[in-house]
Amino acid sequence: MAAETDGRRARRERGRVAVLDAVVALLEGGSATPTAQEVAARAGVSPASLFRYFDSIDELQHDATDRFFERNAARLEIPALGVGLLGVRAERYAGSRVALCAAVEPVARLVRARAVGGPVLQDVRRRLADQAATHFARELGSATPTARATALAMIVTTTSFESWDQLRHDFDRTPLQVRRAWREAIVASLRAARRR
């Protein structure tokens, strides 16, 4: 009896993961808001079975977003955090944020559509802000508290997904152009903070 229950539980979990992976794959393939039929077809399950795994579409989207960020956790890191001269660190930071935004673009749109202030997004934003503070600690440490807070806010906002989306789609900038613009803005923000 216990083995049978464990087998059902394992099958249910495999089905659940297949559905989550289907949502992520559809998002990465360009579908902004996949339908239940598209998800079911991609996962190889019936549309009715989706609701055996999830209580609602909102729960499915939430769990798929979590799964996406779990699978892409390494993209949130900055190589050699805090190491090197300012220009090198600014280039590395801008490059890592361009790569992150390019990778998460489909899912980031879904997260923004669901809830701008949701817990997943808040956690990611907090983590990215902490990385910026560590990466540029040398420059921020010599600034006044107000100048430090302003510079950090400018760096995080400048390199946000919203900035990426606007630069790429409203202003038709290439990823390389975005990277250069971000690097210059980071250096300018940090230099301004040290002068205050």
Helix content: over 70%
**Biggest sheet details:** none
Number of helices: 10
Number of domains: 2
Tell me the Rg in angstroms. Answer: 20 Å
Kindly state the number of beta strands. Answer: 0
Which residues sit in consecutive blocks of at least 5 with pLDDT less than 50?
A: none
What general form does the structure show? Answer: elongated
Mean pLDDT: 86
Can you give a write-up of this model?
The protein is elongated, with a radius of gyration of 20 Å. Helices cover 78% and strands 0% of the residues. The protein folds into two domains: 2-71, Orthogonal Bundle (Tetracycline Repressor, domain 2), CATH 1.10.357; 80-195, no CATH class. The chain contains ten helices and no strands. It has 196 residues and is mostly helical.
Which characteristics define this entry?
single chain, 196 residues, mainly alpha, Tetracycline Repressor, domain 2, 2 domains
Fold blueprint:
Elements: H1 2-28, H2 36-43, H3 47-53, H4 57-71, H5 86-114, H6 119-135, H7 137-141, H8 145-158, H9 161-170, H10 175-195
Task: Please summarize what this structure is.
The protein is built from ten helices and no strands.
